[in-house]
Amino acid sequence: MIERIRQLMEHLGQSSSQFADSMEVPRAVLSHIMSGRNKPSLDVIIKLLAKNEEVNPNWLLHGKGEMLMKVAENSVPESASKAADVAHPREPVAKPDISESTAKVQNDPFPEMPLPPPYVGKKIKQVILIYTDNTFTALSPEQ
Question: Which CATH number does the domain housing residue 69 bear?
């Protein structure tokens, strides 16, 4: 894995200090990894993949596949394609159907939508968005 991290730093054109700073990891931690003294912790790997979302996790962890994931052009919005890339990094993502009803949904954050049987008669009280930096936004119809 150390050699793949070296390849990634070279690809990004970053020194080990710049790379550590970009991942918000202490420089000494990366130095110890690169020297072979320590193996990368799960925290370091997660930060590396979070800050370099184009990196193929299978390549980084196992040396399989290409360094960078290829995302189909004109696919789903970035947030949805990232989730799909993590689950299935090499499968193309279908382009969503943009219709008049979808345009209405974009203007109204809590539209009246038909719900499947167990949810009939229930209304959305709150939606919570959790971001990769562990911050969140809570949305409710009153906002």
Answer: 1.10.260.40
State both tokens at 75: 């696919």
Instruction: Dump the DSSP string for 77-98.
Output: -HHHHHHHHHH-TTSPPPPP--
- Say yes or no: 66 and 112 in one domain: no
Tens digits of residue pLDDT in 49-60? 999 889 999 899
Question: When comparing pLDDT for 70 and 77, which is higher?
Answer: 70
- What contacts 24+ positions apart, CB below 8 Å, involve 76-85? 82/53, 85/53
Cα separation, 83 vs 85, in Å, equals 5
CA distance 86 to 58: 10
40-50 burial, b at 16+ Cβ within 10 Å, e below that, comes to beeebbebbbe
Q: What range does the domain containing 54 cover?
A: 2-87
Residues in Cβ contact with 8 at an 8 Å cutoff, skipping those fewer than 6 apart: 19, 48, 52, 55, 60, 67
